[in-house]
Amino acid sequence: MDRFDCEDILELLSGYIDDEIDSVMKQLLEQHFKECEQCLSLLHSLEKTIALSKEAHRRRTVPKKVVNRIYYEIRIRYKR
Amino acid sequence: MAGRNGEALLVEKAKNGDTKAFEDLIKMTRGKIYNLGLRLLRNKDDAADIMQETYISAYKNLPKFKGNSSFSTWLYRIATNFALMRMRKEEGKKISEEQLKELSSHIYNTAIADWTLSPTTYLKQQELREIMEKAIASLPPKYRAVFILRDIEGIPIAEVSNILSISASAVKTRTHRSRLYLREKLSEYFNNSGERVR
After folding, report:
1. Structural domain that includes position B125
2. Residue among B30, B28, B25, B29 at smallest CA distance from B12
3. Residue A32 to residue A41: CA distance in whole angstroms
4. pLDDT at residue B100, as a whole number
5. Burial class for A48, CB neighbours closer than 10 Å (0-12, 13-18, 19+)
6. Chain B, 43-82: which have a CB under 8 Å from a chain A CB?
7. Region for residue A42 given its phi and psi (left: phi exceeds 0; alpha: psi -120 to 50; beta: otherwise)
8. For an interface test with A, which of B52, B134, B150, B197 has the most A Cβ atoms less than 10 Å from its Cβ?
9. ipTM given for this complex
10. CB proximity A19 to B under 8 Å
């Protein structure tokens, strides 16, 4: 394959984002992005979707009472 | 924090009935397991229940843990299985697998928006955060689990494949379809809310 159609690109975008495609394919994709604003926009919006998902799910601290309950359960169930 | 060797030592001690060593393992992993439950089930009580079920099951099954993966990967597997059982009983509208598969052809028939603001700027809007959470919750459970482990927890493809006992190629396909679906949901939001799109 020496050139891509836009619809072929769509299936390769996640592989490109995750660096899961070989270097030849990567070069061909990057060439396509230079020539096709639509595919470049799609790539950017997909990258932003991933960033937004991460941002929407900030880590929370585990409530102490939850951990203490687990310690208690294990101690009473498996006391030797 | 203990490395892999420290972890292995604690696991050995816990296998011999040392509950204190197991408590140390809980201390090392509790944040990961609680947050995974919270992200998969979107509810603090359910996340707490999953966490308790996971550690009790892990303690009971410690003799079966052979150390072929890290202890936290093994815990992720137990926690995800418990969460998946609950997710399958959930009510609410979900997108079907068929619809997810058809997304690719749909995307090129609609205008592609270029979102120009930074993620943090967008997420200052509580509304957008809720849209994102709802969209993730509307994924079928097996897609949601892959997306959360892969894109939110940032776990490598091979490890997600190990946690969920599915092939690496299934991880890649489900991740990709989930991303396309969520992108569609965000595009709808930006188009409807009049955000700047190009």
Report:
1. 97-193
2. B25
3. 12
4. 84
5. buried
6. 44, 48, 51-52, 55-56, 59-60
7. alpha
8. B52
9. 0.89
10. no
Shared domain for B131 and B173, answered yes or no, is yes
Residue B148's pLDDT is what? 96
CATH code: domain of residue B51: 1.10.1740.10
For residues A16 and B149, give the distance between their C-alpha atoms in angstroms, rounded to a whole number: 19
Residues B118 and B153 both lie in one domain: yes
pLDDT surpasses 80 at B195: no
How far apart, in whole angstroms, are the C-alpha atoms of residue B195 and residue B198? Answer: 10
- In this structure, of A18-22, B1-5, B80-84, the range with the lowest mean pLDDT score is B1-5
CA distance A44 to chain B (A): 7
More confident residue, B34 or B95: B34
Cβ B85 vs Cβ B46: under 8 Å: no
Which residue bears the tokens 């204190």?
B20
Average pLDDT, stretch A60-75?
Answer: 93
Asked if residue B79 has pLDDT above 80, the reply is: yes
